[in-house]
Amino acid sequence: MVGRFESQKDTVQELTESAATHIGNIATIVTGAVRDVARETGDWLTDLIEMREAAQRAQADELRGPRDEG
């Protein structure tokens, strides 16, 4: 027969293990979300940089005037 103290110790141990497991799972979810947000933000900024550079090239081409094709 298990004594009261040992039963309480087992309960605390189970609760601690369960909490650690759930907290670990939550941390994994949060870490993945932060990673995904960082990746999307980086991709978006890359798109913005590329659009700005393309606009600058188009403006420079326009300032040079029409090219002779022949």
The low-confidence parts are none
- What is the 3D form? rod-shaped
User: Helicity, in percent?
Assistant: over 70%
Strand proportion: under 5%
* Secondary-structure element string: H
Q: How many DSSP H or I helices?
A: 1
Instruction: Give the integer mean of the pLDDT values.
Output: 94
| Cα-to-Cα separation, first versus last residue | 101 Å
Description:
This protein is mainly α and 70 residues long. It has a domain at 22-61. The chain has one helix at residues 4-64. The N and C termini lie far apart (101 Å). The model has no long low-confidence stretch (mean pLDDT 94).
What's this entry about, in short?
This protein has 1 helix and no strands.
What features would you highlight for this structure?
1 helix, 87% helix, mainly alpha, 70 residues, rod-shaped
